[in-house]
Amino acid sequence: MKIDTNAIFSITEANQNFSKVARKVDELGSVVIMKNNAPRYLVIDFSKAEADAEAPDEDVLAISQKLIEENREAYEVLAQ
Fold first, then answer.
1. What would the 3-class secondary structure string for the chain be?
2. Angle 14-16-18 from CA coordinates, rounded to 5°
3. Which residues pair with 68 in a beta bridge?
4. How far is residue 28's CA from residue 51's CA, in Å, rounded to a whole number?
């Protein structure tokens, strides 16, 4: 995952000035909050979270086709 350096906040800064974090989420779509110099939390726009929660039908179909091809022999045995 690539992280924009403009979208990184320390947990202290996020705690003291959450409105600044929220404005940056509105601007960039997401921010990372660091704790002990490691990425700990990801704050994203709620509408983006809803959109990311569902896989497009094309993706599901492609994954299904791939699994069928990889496991064709097992499916044939089960079909008997």
1. CCCCHHHEEEHHHHHHCHHHHHHHHHHHCEEEEEECCEEEEEEECHHHHHHHHCCCHHHHHHHHHHHHHHCHHHHHHHHC
2. 50
3. none
4. 16
- Name residue, tokens 């044939």: 76
Neighbours of 29 (CB within 10 A): 14
Which tens digits make up the pLDDT trace of 43-52? 998 887 666 6
pTM to 2 decimal places: 0.59
pLDDT in tens, 1-37: 566 778 899 999 999 999 999 999 999 989 999 999 9
For CA atoms 27, 31, 33, 34, the dihedral sign is negative
